[in-house]
Amino acid sequence: EKQEIPELPKIPEKQKLPVEQKLSAIYGEASNTLYKDTKELDKVASHSEDGENEEISEQNNHLLCTNPGEAIEAEKLMNEAIIHLEHHAADKDGYEFCKEYDFYSMVLYQKKHEGHIVQKLRLKYYNFNKYNDTINDVWYPGRGNSCNDRFVKRKIARMYNPNLVVIHQRYKDSAFGSWKYFYALAAKIEISEKKTIIVMTSANINDHNPSGKEYKNAIIESANSFKIDIDSEDDIRRGKLKKTFVNIAGYIIEKKLGYVDVTYVESIDGHSPTHLKRVIMKGLSCFFPIN
């Protein structure tokens, strides 16, 4: 039985980026100054108290982008990605109720958007002291997601600053599944002390896959005009891995009174229908780990 959901206004086709969510403003530095001196990376403000930004900078300094124009375009793209993520997280038009886990306070929805599947997972994590831990568990871009270490391998392919990177991720749905991969821009944005957004989207990234298939972002149109070249690994250049494409994916994490509210949205081309199960298990393993 479908769940009755009130309508929300649809996102305009062309929407100006809200100033308060500009990445450069949140970081506290203009984009074109981030590349003159790598020490300025330490000024980026987003949970820096845990040393994560410093670690990311030190480990990936050799991947730092030195092209200010590219960095500015990356920021613009991710600003737009924030808008789309928040829209699909808040929008209830077209979503179908799929499953509810009362014990975990978790609900899964799914809809079709211009011929593509969008899945949304909402849950309440009743431990507001775990707000920062939750962010770190789902963000850290230089390692496989700690929620799925066995099935996810991740590394930074290019760094604009510690909170804005290009990631290369390999993953499989099960122990016996085949490895797939994608490249995507990923950003972590601290909207306020009680709200953080983590968002990913694939762009026009040349990874030298020989398939010749044209990949286009079906949700964020401007991503298709963001063109970069990546020095990919040999098995990708030989076509040994299946390529997937992130239209949009990300988390909106908010600290509420007594709990952490998490909304996860995902639309990835190249997933099978059984991927619905993986989204569910991602939520369970991330926020309710078995010790």
UniProtKB/TrEMBL annotation:
<dbReference type="InterPro" id="IPR006486">
    <property type="entry name" value="PYST_A"/>
</dbReference>
<protein>
    <submittedName>
        <fullName>Fam-a protein</fullName>
    </submittedName>
</protein>
